[in-house]
Amino acid sequence: MLIEGFYTIEQFAIRGSDIDALITLNPDHEVYQGHFPGQPVVPGVIQLQMIKEILTKAVEKELLFGFISSAKYLSMIVPSENQQLEISIHYEPTDTGDYMIRGQIGSGETVFTKIRGILSVQL
Predict the structure, then answer these.
(1) Which residues, listed in sequence order, are joined to residue 86 by a DSSP beta bridge?
(2) Which pLDDT tens digit goes with each residue over 48-68?
(3) I need a labelling partner for 71 at 20 to 30 A (CA). Which of 11, 42, 49, 111 fits?
(4) Cβ contacts of residue 21 below 8 Å, gap of 6+?
């Protein structure tokens, strides 16, 4: 995990090419002291990192973002209000050993983030 103690994985399931994870954010993490004081929100780059880490756990390989074709931040994630998040990822291996993904972070009916891209195996 890149940012130790930022979240914990409560549930993790792989079904074919689909991954579902339930995570709990740590609303007291020091990241929120700078993003943003008085109104903490989960930084977009950390949201992408969480998706990458969940896929890394599933495929058991170290991955890097190779290409992000779309990243949409639809709503802010306020850790005190949205402490538990659902991360879902659909992935497909390519002929080159990369992984094409569609990922989403949400909570109940709310979708916070959607991403499409390619992750590559870190050499």
Answers:
(1) 22, 106
(2) 999 999 999 999 999 999 999
(3) 11
(4) 9, 11, 12, 13, 54, 86, 87, 88
